[in-house]
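Our preliminary data section would be incomplete without showing what the modeling component actually yields. Below, a chain of 188 amino acids is followed by its predicted structure, encoded as tokens that our downstream tools consume directly.
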Amino acid sequence: MYPTKSNPVKTGEYISYLRKERNMTQFSLAAALQVSHQAVSKWETGNALPDIDILLAIANLFEVSIDNLILGSDDEDEDEETDFMSDDKLLYSAAMACTVKTNNNIALLLEAYEEMREEDITDCIQTLGIRDTDILLKLCSRLSSRKLVQIINTLRLSEILPLVAANMDSKDINECIQTLGIIDTEVK
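Predicted structure:
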């Protein structure tokens, strides 16, 4: 999964670390970025995050990636595993989704879905209008509760709701029941 929000404290600590590693003061960093020293102080204490154009300038100045800057760590800190996909995997996922949709190739989707982002899987299911229960259950095993809601409601798949309900939040199940107009409460 992808990060849903940044951690300003971790980002700020990393900016402070990078600044100090280069023997810069908050004033000199502020001057280099054409911002106030108060702004630098707010970033470093986690009270604010730099604007995106300033993040780019900081990343360039300290020769780090924006990802590392936002996440607050070096590439060398491999101790923590992350759920982020590499650029190669993101490209692979997008390319597979495009190929599957262009060729209407469900078999290819079934071969590649474990390496694909859930957004791409969802897009393929919706674009191809997949309705086969066995195929849907296999593909849906990789999807979040919100993505399941999207698929079930968009394709009006009331028949698979009971089969995937165990993997869904009760709020999402209720949303599907209301959207689909299901009266039988055995889904829960």
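The domain at 8-71 is CATH 1.10.260.40 (434 Repressor (Amino-terminal Domain)). The two ends are 26 Å apart (CA to CA). Preliminary results of this kind motivate Aim 1 of the renewal.
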